[in-house]
Amino acid sequence: MAALQTAFAAVRQGGPAALLIGGEAGVGKSRLISEFAGEARAAGARVMIGGCLELGADGLPFGPFTAMLRDLVREIGADELVGLLPGSDRAIRELARLLPELAGGQTAGDAVSALGNAGEARARLFEEFLTLLERLAVARPLVVVVEDAHWADRSSRDLIAFLIGYQRALANVLIAVTFRSDELHRTHPLRPLLAELTRIDWVERTELPRLSRGQAEELAAAVLGGFPDRALTDTLYERAEGNPLFTEELLACPDGCALIPDSLADLLQQAVRRLPEDTQEVLRIASAAGGATSHTLLARVTGRTEDELTAAIRPAVTGNVLVTTADGYAFRHALIREAVHEDLLPGEHSQVHTKFALAIDADPALVGDGRADMEKAHHWYSAHNSTWALISAWQASVEACRSVAHAERLVLLARVLELWDQVPDAAERIGADHVRVLEESAIAARDAGEHKRGLAFTESALAQLDERTDPVRVALLLSDRFQFRRELGISESMEDLDRALTLVPEELSKPARTRLLLSASDHACHDGGPREKESAEEALRLARETGDREAEAQALALMAMIEAGPGGLAEPGSEPFRLIAQAHEIARQVGAYQPIIKLVIYESHLLCGVGEYQRAAEVAMQGVADAERHGLARTRGAFLAINVVEPLLYLGRWDEASDVTERALDLAPPSPTRGSLCILSGWLALARGDLATAARRTAASREVVNGVRYEDQKHLPQAMLEIGLSLATDGPAAAVAVATKTLQRCDVEGSSPRYVWPLLVTAAAVARQAPGDAADALLCKLRTLAEKQDAFGPVQRAWQLSYEAIDPRSDGETAGVADAAARLAAADAAVAAWEAIDQPYPAALALLGAAQVALSAGPSGRSAAAARLRRAAPIADGLGARPLSEQIAALLSQAAGPVAGPHHERLSLTGREIEVLRLVTAGQSNREIAAALFISPKTASVHVSNILGKLGAATRTEAAARAHALRLFEAKDAGR
User: Fold this and answer.
1) 152, 553, 590, 865: which could join 851 in a potential S-S bond, CB 3.0 to 4.6 Å?
2) Does 818 score more than 60 pLDDT?
């Protein structure tokens, strides 16, 4: 959409632009065009869309252009269309080749014979269609779209090439062409045309990718009205592989997407049914493989020689049903494989899977390293051989643990549990009892981020044990249950941990008691509690007595957080950082990953809290990389992304922060992590004026945060986001109401100042914008809270100064001071505090606030206000903080005095747009405008596009002429 919008802005400014948009069937090309067409029409453009039919190459020449003309006649009438080409009977005859009804009384044969030879006729037709588009674009912008160009006939392809090639002559016309990239086999006639067009300067080719895992989850949530269970979203993603159409079709199934809908199966099978029967037979066998299959393995199972297999399979590769891999083949899409697999008869199904299992068992090298057990588990299960399916699944789960494939391990262990009752001697077969399988399943669920399933496994295991005969095992499971409940935010009770510690005294098992004490201390250091230090110190003592270096590192890390306090506040070089360094060294010596990842979380959290943003981001980034190497990208890695994004936002590296956030969300992380990431993403979208994304992210985070117990580091940032969104969409009064409810609902007084101060500043800012009893009451409550808050370190001090600048009466030194000088000094102090810790966005906000204070003094304060606004403007523009940039521009216009004539308000031009229009009128390019106003060329281009729309101008020249005609800048010029 951004590419289309940029191209549309380019043609409105007089330049050529064309987009070639590819993507597989169902990926969303038509939906994209539909959404963009709506936007373009709303912006005053005419949109002409023509689609190619699958039979186009056989007998429908110029199909998409005929459709465009027919829609145009329906919209404006044949007479008006003819009137666009006055005095040109020949032009009408030419266009009648596409739409015969334009020929009037002539027959189609008369029209064609009047054209001369075919070559000349074709050239004239192309010229006349080009002229028609040129005339249509005089009055308003024109968007021409050709859909499904992979089905285009030769004539249509040639006309597409002609129009794009001569687009410099088409002012105000955007051309877009869509095609199915999965249909473009090696000899497809569209391929050379796309290659030729891509070499043209103004042509951009883009490919619509499939949805990421996180985007597919978001789509499912939109369809179902809420985020579904992880098991469903994982199944959806594995089957639909991120294809939006396939995802929606599966979601619409009444059986919970267990089967492929008939309509979707027919679509998937189209390409398969065009293949030779011998090829289809090989595909049915290959479909049992589940994923990529080596050529040699497929030859063994099919009983063909390698040459015979190559001959049979080549049509499937040419037809893009199969794609080649390093040593074999894979279906282009999982659902195609599934649809083909369903064609196997019941007897064939078991036989084929058994052949695969036996072939792999005989020669494990036929599959990739370490995959033999997993492949056999799949085939024995599919062959309905319960005994070998259970044995191979258990063996494969061990291999999955070694290869840190946590999600696969969880699937395999769940399969062992599923088959347990079908194998009478299951425990003897695998050398483990049922509870052991449940315990391993709970561990796998934790590593995979499946906390609900982990809780279910743990409770099942507890139901099968007796604490009198197996107290250690029960105690450790009680600890696991406590951790899962805590992760899910459904319990604050220490009952399970207390019971576990009672069951395991030191003399029974020091290692088990150490683990239990670490769990208790971990809970205490996050939520506060009288026993936190005692638990950590006892755990540290026991770890050292037993030589458990990993537990020793964990204990030291927890002691560091306890020293820092619930707010996580510690100066660099202080005791918490010393303990963290000590724990790091121990963990590195023994190669213990779990303590290291926690240390990374703690260290980056503490560094961010004291304003060491660069170091905090670096530490967390390294942690993300380590998590990926250990197969924990979706859980620990996504969580650590939060600790990367926060300092990047503070540093003003918003584009980087956005990239990190989106990559983490694309992994579809556990619900609590997704909620925090959505808060950060929503705040950034709000700061940049993207209200649609901000609203979507706010709703997603609200769903998570409202369903868990109160945590200041989640609920207070969520409240700030809700207040900001309400202000942007519904105004100050609504935002005051949201802020008031937040103070009633949240335990603000008992929360860390680290999260309280930003909330106080946000709430005070909206209260100042909404005079009235509700706002006054809110300010009164905020003052009471502010008086009780400490301000630890430079970051919290900067927030405190910002609050005092907004509400001076809260500060004892300035309370009741009415003169602007004192208020301006308070505002400038906040600016200096933010600049000292390199936080550009709060600094720009503080500069805006200082300018507002200066202007409140009357004309004498204009110079001081303008000076501060000129410092703030490049900061806001550099960040892409559009709402702040517009506020600054409007206030700068006010500070500078009258800028425009009497028409600018009627035209709805913002202060920044007036400045840009003045430079456009002076003949400056976007780059020159950007340099003059300290903004990016892209931002300048967006401003110019908005100006053209508001002035009703097609080009920059027209906009300048309009400005001169309206005498917009005479007042300012005369003042010089």
Assistant:
1) 865
2) no
